[in-house]
């Protein structure tokens, strides 16, 4: 089985090659790019929190639907767990995996890992079991922190497994005082992102970068006592550190969004109002569904909303200001760097959305293909340097690290590095950065950075597949489309491939369509003709060629109606996959929302992915609702 190298256009971007006059070069490298090394006086993410504990021990630090902790209580619980982790070998240079639902216990776990000196490896409970197993084997943590719901999914290994919500007696006798920080190379976390080889790559990010970003953001957008910041982002997403750590450095409070509520606009709106949330982060794609359930004057407590993870459209920006009396702050930056640029987005009808200006501890370069600065207004690739805030590299991937992390030729600082982002940008005359798109095949789908090659590699593993190309469909809400050819003597089932992908890939990486083609069309020079492929796209997944299996009971009938409403169909077969019928990862959240409202059950993404057909989902709903008729 093979994958086919592709490009979304016959030719790659051509960058400027003419050398800059010395005066313009000086302006671009230094005047538009002032640099100041940040003053970092902490070695762990927990130390600023510990200072705040001494200032406001009795103030409420975290609150959820069913629990709350003061600063002193959170500190005591985290200290005791951290002492146990330290005795198990957690210290700088080691990892502790965390796989828990959002809760007060999750905050205890993350602060305990920070205090121990280890880096946490987040494993979102919604990830497939195969993904969890790979991440544990690859990171080799000294311990895995779980809760009662995730504990059964942790495979056997050399790691210590602790359920934070159940095993408290194991560390109840540990000291309650703060741990002395240990010397060493401190990392805050190691995040797994999509990779090109069919397996995710792990980004090891330093504490000093996270602290520099946090201090800089706080100087620009201060929080303090009386503020409440919403924790709703998956802690496997890099911006979650602003929700987890920043508020508790400055005396604010963290309100923990209940599991599932982050994708339910009504529950989210009501939770914001209930806890008087003043600050939150939201991916632009998720803002439009939120708008559908809010109006002018909604969520009056909000002062500021940060958005990022994907480009902000003028529609999202202007829709925000139509509803909320709050600042909208656009943030930009890959996992390898943290924040690269930010700006407050005001109402500017018909104006493009800028990504803003970099923090003063970042060196930002827009370079041509000779690694020379481009003139103002001319596009080039974005590179970012600095003495802090650049990831160490990719865990156990030295060749890839050498390809993406380069020596910085524009500074005399020994050992200085810069990161090749793969983003196409340019400077405007006012020094603001404008993002023009991605170079190559890495894309953002609903806020999640995805290597299309990883999806190709997973599909190509299937015995029935000979060749595979994956691309993104323009103007279709970042819809992922896969095209495959059959292996000799085999036939390909689109539904089987969609199920195969759902088993091995995170939700955001599931193709919406699989189209079986006779051959992969190419240009004369051998590159794949993406336009020709898109003209053959099959949105039925083969479903429309199969007999229509009708609902067998009332639950199946209601679930089928929900499928039809979401997918814009008149009828669906109860044995066909949601993805084969044209669904995608964002529509999964809509499916959960409507089924939860219809049947009053607490469905998770895992529930839906475990049963992708009307019949399977109806069975799950029946099991969660004993009073319902059994399908």
Automatic annotation (TrEMBL):
GO cellular component terms, semicolon-separated: cytoplasm
Alphabetical keyword list: Phosphopantetheine, Phosphoprotein
Species the sequence originates in: Micromonospora profundi
A molecular function (GO) term: phosphopantetheine binding
Biological processes per GO annotation: amino acid activation for nonribosomal peptide biosynthetic process; secondary metabolite biosynthetic process
Cofactor(s) needed: pantetheine 4'-phosphate
Superkingdom: Bacteria
Protein name as annotated: Non-ribosomal peptide synthetase
């Amino acid at each position: 089985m093979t994958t086919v190298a592709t490009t979304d256009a016959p030719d790659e971007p051509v960058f400027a090659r003419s050398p800059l006059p010395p005066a313009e070069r000086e302006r671009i490298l230094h005047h538009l790019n002032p640099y100041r090394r940040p003053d970092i006086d902490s070695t762990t993410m927990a130390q600023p929190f510990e200072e705040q504990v001494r200032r406001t021990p009795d103030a409420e630090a975290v609150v959820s639907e069913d629990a709350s902790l003061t600063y002193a209580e959170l500190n005591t619980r985290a200290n005791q767990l951290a002492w146990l982790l330290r005795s198990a070998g957690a210290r700088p240079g080691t990892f502790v995996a965390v796989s828990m639902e959002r809760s007060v216990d999750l905050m205890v776990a993350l602060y305990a890992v920070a205090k121990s000196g280890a880096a946490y490896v987040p494993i979102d409970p919604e990830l497939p079991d195969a993904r969890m197993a790979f991440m544990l084997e690859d990171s080799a943590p000294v311990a895995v922190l779980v809760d009662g719901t995730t504990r059964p999914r942790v495979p056997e290994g050399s790691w210590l497994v602790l359920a934070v919500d159940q095993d408290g007696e194991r560390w109840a006798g540990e000291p309650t005082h703060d741990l002395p920080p240990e010397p060493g190379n401190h990392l805050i976390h190691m995040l797994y992102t999509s990779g090109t080889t069919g397996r995710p790559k792990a980004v090891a990010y330093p504490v000093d970068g996270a602290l520099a970003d946090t201090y800089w953001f706080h100087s620009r957008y201060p929080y303090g006592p009386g503020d409440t910041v919403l924790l709703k982002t998956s802690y496997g997403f890099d911006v979650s550190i602003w929700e987890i750590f920043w508020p508790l450095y400055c005396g604010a409070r963290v309100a923990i969004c209940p599991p599932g509520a982050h994708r339910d606009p009504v529950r989210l709106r009501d939770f914001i109002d209930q806890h008087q949330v003043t600050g939150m982060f939201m991916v632009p794609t998720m803002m439009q569904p939120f708008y559908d359930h809010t109006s002018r004057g909604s969520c009056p407590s909000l002062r500021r909303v940060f958005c990022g993870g994907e480009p902000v459209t003028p529609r999202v920006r202007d829709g925000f200001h139509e509803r909320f009396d709050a600042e909208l702050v656009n943030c930009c930056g890959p996992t390898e760097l943290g924040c690269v640029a930010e700006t407050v987005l005001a109402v500017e009808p018909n104006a493009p959305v800028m990504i803003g200006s970099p923090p003063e501890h970042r060196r930002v370069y827009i370079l041509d293909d000779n690694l020379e600065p481009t003139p103002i207004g001319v596009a080039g690739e974005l590179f970012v340097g600095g003495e802090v805030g650049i990831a160490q590299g990719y865990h156990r991937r030295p060749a890839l690290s050498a390809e993406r992390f380069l020596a910085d030729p524009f500074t005399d600082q020994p050992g200085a590095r810069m990161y090749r982002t793969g983003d196409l940008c340019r400077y405007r005359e006012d020094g603001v950065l404008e993002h023009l798109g991605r170079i190559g095949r890495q894309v953002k789908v609903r806020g999640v950075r995805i290597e299309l090659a990883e999806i190709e590699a997973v599909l190509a593993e299937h015995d029935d597949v000979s060749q595979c190309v994956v691309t993104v469909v323009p103007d279709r809400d970042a819809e992922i489309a896969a095209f495959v050819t059959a292996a000799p003597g085999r036939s390909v089932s689109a539904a089987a491939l969609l199920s195969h992908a759902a088993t091995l890939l995170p939700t955001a990486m599931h193709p919406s369509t699989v189209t079986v083609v006779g051959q992969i069309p190419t240009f004369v020079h051998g590159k794949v003709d993406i336009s020709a492929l898109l003209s053959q796209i099959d949105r039925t997944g083969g479903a429309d060629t199969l007999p229509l299996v009708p609902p067998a009971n009332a639950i199946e009938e209601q679930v089928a109606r929900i499928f039809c409403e979401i997918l814009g169909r008149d009828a669906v077969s109860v044995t066909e996959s949601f993805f084969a019928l044209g669904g995608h990862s964002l529509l999964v959240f809509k499916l959960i929302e409507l089924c939860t409202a219809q049947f009053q059950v607490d469905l998770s993404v895992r529930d839906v992915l475990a049963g992708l057909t009307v019949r399977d989902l109806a069975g799950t709903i029946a099991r969660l609702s004993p009073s319902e008729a059994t399908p």
